[in-house]
Design goal:
Helix content is 1%, strand content 56%. It has a 12-stranded antiparallel beta barrel with strand order 4-5-6-9-10-13-14-15-16-17-18-21. The chain has a 4-stranded mixed beta sheet with strand order 8-7-19-20, with no helix packed on it.
């Protein structure tokens, strides 16, 4: 019962795309697409000149994901996906890129626990639903397109990359689309729970550069192209991303990326304030081939009830209660997974 209704309301993967920045010295060749490249002088220090990569670069990989933690679903493996990105540097100061990314996850709170069952118009529950006995397939595949145009400028001695960016996201949930009947302000409404478009302007500042270490700070405003569903406002929100890299060898790179992002899905009355973390490593074992693994996690998304994960309650519009007349209220959404990628070109990570 309620499988279609519940599985369509999955966790909110949130994406920040800005100009990836990396240090190219001893570890050149494993920078992500759209990278800002710092070239070291013969003494190991960086030159004063900072440039964007010129010419064509690409990424094409296949990925698999594994759930970390117990969400009540009988299997840990998630469907495979792929990423494809293309970048072209017109000169050392101007670069354009476009990419298609897939992200797999399964949020907690859709296949375990018991939630109250209400009838529309009544304040007291009429029963309950045991999600552990009615396992819901909340397997989610986010499909994200990103396009950006990067410009490198200098503010005095400080290099700065400015990147106007467009992002479009759709998703499939439980093998179907992302439409669902959900409770919005106490009333049922059909929405595409994970489909939206955003615009943003990313500003990236390098703050650490050596033959082994590189760090950048990216920030900027982001906002939805259009509002829908429960969206009550659309003021620009400031996202932040810290990126730290350690280049152990010319082939091996480790990375650590905490972020504070502001996704705004149709089930959100106001933009989320979501802290996320991605960490992992990539290895270029033979040009142009690479393998990369990383863990992605974060605090619960969705501000309706961040202290309760997944489905909070179910409301029947009329009796008998059927799946197409049952609306769910979604609380905090959280998913942690390990992702393995094998591909060609330059490995990249979409910060979540």
């Amino acid at each position: 019962m309620l499988r279609k209704v519940l599985c369509a309301a999955s966790a909110a993967v949130s994406i920040v795309i800005g100009p990836a920045v990396t240090f190219a010295g001893e570890s050149s060749g494993i920078a992500p697409p759209g990278a800002v490249v710092l070239e070291p002088s013969s003494g190991g220090s960086t030159k004063s000149k900072l440039s964007l990569p010129t010419g064509l670069s690409y990424t094409l990989d296949a990925s698999s994901a594994t759930l970390l933690g117990n969400v009540g679903w009988p299997t840990k493996g998630l469907p495979g996906g792929f990423d494809a990105a293309l970048s072209y540097g017109f000169n050392p100061h101007i670069r354009a890129s476009a990419g298609y990314y897939t992200v797999q996850e399964f949020p907690a709170g859709f296949a375990q626990g018991t939630v109250p069952l209400y009838l529309q118009g009544l304040s007291a529950p009429i029963g309950s639903v045991n999600l552990s006995q009615n396992a819901i397939n909340a397997t989610t595949m986010d499909k994200i397109f990103v396009g950006e145009f990067q410009t490198l400028v200098r503010v005095g001695p400080i290099p700065l990359v400015i990147a106007p960016t467009y992002l479009s996201r759709t998703a499939s949930v439980g093998g179907s689309d992302d439409s669902a009947l959900v409770e919005i302000n106490g009333f049922p409404q059909y929405v595409h729970t994970r489909t939206f478009e955003q615009q943003m302007v990313a500003f990236t500042l390098p703050f650490l550069a050596s033959p082994k270490f590189f760090g950048t700070y990216t920030f900027g405003p982001q906002w939805n192209v259009n509002t829908s569903g429960a969206n009550a406002t659309n003021a620009a929100q400031i996202f932040q991303l810290l990126s730290l890299e350690y280049h152990a060898t010319p082939q091996l790179r480790a990375f650590f990326q905490p972020a504070l992002i502001k996704p705004y899905t149709p089930v959100d009355p106001y933009p989320q304030h979501l802290a996320t973390l991605i960490y992992g490593a990539s290895y270029a074992f033979a040009k142009p081939f690479f393998v990369q693994g990383y863990v992605s996690t974060g605090v619960p998304t969705n501000p309706i009830d961040p202290n309760r994960l997944g489905v909070v309650s179910i409301t029947c519009q009329q009796l008998p209660c059927s799946p197409n007349q049952s609306a769910v209220q979604i609380g905090g959404l959280k998913s942690t997974q390990y992702v393995l990628q094998i591909g060609i070109g330059r490995p990249s990570v979409v910060p979540l």
